[in-house]
Amino acid sequence: MRTLYKTISIEKLKKVYLELVKMQLQIDHNGGPEENGALFEEYLMLREKMLKRFGLPDKEGFAKILYVDNQPTELEIDDRVKVLHGVAADYLLSAAKSECQILKEAQDNRESPFEVLPELGIATHSYTIFIYIHILLSKRDTVENILAELKKANNSKTLNALGKFEQGNVKKPEQLIKKLKQEEIKYIDDFIKTFPKNE
To answer: What does the domain layout of the chain look like in residue ranges?
Structure first.
């Protein structure tokens, strides 16, 4: 059984949910996430915080429960909160699986990285998604080795360095590659091959 979620007043949950809805609708009506980068980041952090209050990871399936097409009524807000409570109860009372078991099932069922990585507390970053799709789903390494690499890379310093390759703004790529290899980032060579070189 999983850890029970934090007890919090319904009124406080409704207030946080309304704030989340306001952000989401503002983003949707003003060009989407691409046009509202800072607000979208704030939205994602608040969404994660809201789901955590229910003891849920920030997975696509759970996040969809929070999504709206227009401003909800008081009754619709009550219904959403009740749905979240029900989903959280089912999730928290389900048998906990080991991290390796979660990855193995994801590999066998070819699940989305956006569902699985948050379940493991792993950031959905270009490098972790690369590992998931190109290493895990392709069965190029053991589940145990892949899990170890995901955990090793799951820190902002390493992910920011890896993100520079995706953005194409690495002035001295050889030095950065050497540094990441010293940190034992295992799939760095395969990862950087997926991006065009900065001329």
So the answer is: 10-93, 99-192
Tens digit of each residue's pLDDT (9 = 90 or more) over 156-196: 888 888 887 777 777 788 888 898 899 899 999 999 888 76
Residue position matching structure tokens 């990871």? 57
SS3 31: coil
Contact 5, 53 (CB under 8 A): yes
Residue owning tokens 């290493």? 135
- Measured on CA atoms in the order 49, 71, 77, 117, is the torsion positive or negative? negative
CA distance 148 to 129: 14
Q: For residue 67, give Cα distances in angstroms to 16, 139, 197.
A: 13, 34, 38
The contacts found for 92-101 with CB under 8 angstroms, 24 or more apart, are 92/1, 92/2, 92/3, 92/4, 92/5, 92/55, 93/1, 93/2, 94/1, 94/2, 95/1, 96/1, 96/2, 99/147, 100/143, 100/144, 100/147
pTM: 0.68
